[in-house]
Amino acid sequence: MTEPTQTQPDANRTVLVLLDPATEVRSSVLELFTLARTLGRVEAVTLEAPTVEVLAQLGAYGVETVHQAELPTSALAPAGGGDARHLPGVVGAALAAAVRHTDADVVLAPASFAAKEAAALAAHALGAGLVIDAASVGTDDDGRLVAGKRVFAGAWDTRCAVTADVAVLTVRANAVVPEPAPAAVATEVEGFAVDLGGAAPLPTLVERTPKVREAGRPTLEEAALVVAGGRGTGGDFGPVEDFADALGAAVGASRDAVFEGWFDRYIGQTGVTIAPRLYVGAGISGAPHHRGGMQASQVIVAVNSDPEAPIFEICDFAVVGDLGDVLPQAAAAIRAHKNGSQEA
Amino acid sequence: MRIVVTVKYVPDINADRRFDGCRVDRDPSVGTLNELDENALEAALRIFDGLPDDEREGSEVVALTMAPAEGDVALRKAFQMGVDRGVRVTDDALAGSDYFGTAAALAAAVRRLEAEAPVDLVITGMAALDGLGSVVPALLAAELGRPALTLAKKVDLDGGTLSITRETDEAAETLTALLPAVLSVADTANTPRMPNFKLIMAARTKQVEAWSAADLGLDASAVGDTGARTEALSAAARPPRPEVELVADKGAGGTALAEYLIRNELV
After folding, report:
1. Which among A263, A262, A267, A261 is positioned nearest to A289, based on CA atoms?
2. How is the subunit organization of this protein annotated in UniProt (chain A) (predicted)?
3. Do residues B13 and B129 lie in contact, with contact meaning Cβ atoms separated by under 8 Å?
């Protein structure tokens, strides 16, 4: 009852997916393409030229057209220096211009803070309806977009319908499993002009240092498996990282652990919000802040030496014990299992 | 220097938060100031405290909320931290506002304050802990036609130039804007002050100014349920998780964990 109606794709519905940056296609964006195909015809919007590899991937996912924004030089080489094209104000204006250019009905964007702002500014400019962090998207009998959300730290499911002509949605990672289209298509790149004159004045970008993605480990936002460490690690993330690598999981932390300087990114309602297939919390008590960022995970596992830790209340499986003993033993058993499966 | 800090009255995240129909149940017994707004209040008060004596004259920090009358709880907390004035926008016509209705109403209240004297800076928290949309700051800036510096980790004000650093998912950024501007601060930006006895006593006598939609010249068809571009269809509590499978580690806890993951096809 809480899921939107299963949707038949409508060939007359154009769905634009935000692809920013366009130098790689993240799994969260592959999910958006997969979801978009259930709604209608899929096209992408970029702020820069997609690479050859990216175009091949878009074709495999059924993206017929890429609309590449042609930005004024003030955005590309602003007075303050730096490339301002990824600022939410610029991305939002480009999305709005793309909708007007293509007469699109739906915009899908990932759930990063920057994409949320861009989506909101686009919807503001268009008079569109806005849904932030949808966990499911479908349509109702009248063809309206219907989105499901999981709120209050995963304790409630809500549904809403977009009543405006255009729907703009940010979609949470792991909402669907990415799947290539049944048949690949040839992807065309077309330019469209973006005028930044109508929007609020942009801030000046003085400096921008892109983050280097950790090679060999999935990103926290997008991973299907996540292992997180907290205060109970005492600052030693070695067992957490080794166990994550045995599983092929991303690594995260609690806010406490980040405030202590033990790790750089925290899972929580104001940090990274995740909903992976598996979450393992090690040495994490499960304060409301942290639960707000992970409680929508499908399977929740905890390892904690405190039998009264609140995280046990929301777990599927838990070990009461020292993570320094439990995680290495589990990592060894998982590696043995994986090796065994390969030989078999 | 006049600074407006937008604050929200939300259910305490430690309480059993619920929906009443399709609306958030705003049970006053668990209603409180959105914790993330304390970082916004702290940022405003630090800027105020840093002003030279001659500039403090005529300067003020105003806390602004859109809420039913119970929302004064949030403004009282702001008074206790040291803000000078509290304004509450209350109107039945505003109930059910979406992100855009909320931003329009807050912007109209800022413009009314602006009619008294210029407002240099609007500061918000990074999100409200009930909705967690994080988009009202950018929308408020768009409504006001001002630059938005959002999710600041570090804030510097030098004369009329506001400068922030922030970490997005993609990059570390340094941004600047000339005042007037809209600023949102991350929960890592500062540690909010604890109210002291003197401020708590002073807060007791402060009056909240209540404004209606008509006071702000708001078009009632553009806000509230009527103006919303999304329609809430349902809200349902999820079923409780099945009982946890709890294993005490007596030397084989790790093996049990691995077996659980393998059994559930998570490896």
Report:
1. A267
2. Heterodimer of an alpha and a beta subunit.
3. yes
> B134 and A113 in contact by Cβ < 8 A?
yes
Whether residue A318 and residue B245 make contact (CB cut-off 8 A), yes or no, is: yes
Domain count along chain B: 1
pLDDT, averaged per 10 consecutive residues of chain B (267 residues), comes to 97 92 90 96 97 92 97 97 97 96 98 97 96 96 97 95 92 95 96 93 94 95 94 93 92 97 95
Dihedral sign (CA A262, B258, A276, B20): negative
pTM: 0.93
Query: What is the CATH architecture assignment of A225-343?
Result: 3-Layer(aba) Sandwich (3.40)
Chain B residues with CB-CB distance to A21 below 8 A? 170
Establish if B260 touches chain A: CB-CB under 8 angstroms: yes
B22 touches chain A (CB under 8 A): yes
Q: Give chain B positions within 8 Å (CB) of A289.
A: 13
Tell me which residue has tokens 């480990």: A217
Q: Give, for B31, the enclosing helix (H) or strand (E).
A: strand B31-33
Apex A138 CA angle, A298 and A140, nearest 5: 135
Break chain A into its structural domains and give their ranges. 10-193, 225-343
- Say yes or no: B15 contacts chain A, CB-CB below 8 A: no
Minimal CA separation from B89 to chain A, in Å: 22
pLDDT at A2: 40
**Interface touch A327/B254, C-beta < 8 Å:** yes
Assigned CATH topology for domain A10-193: Rossmann fold (3.40.50)
Q: Residue ranges of chain A with pLDDT lower than 50? A: 1-3
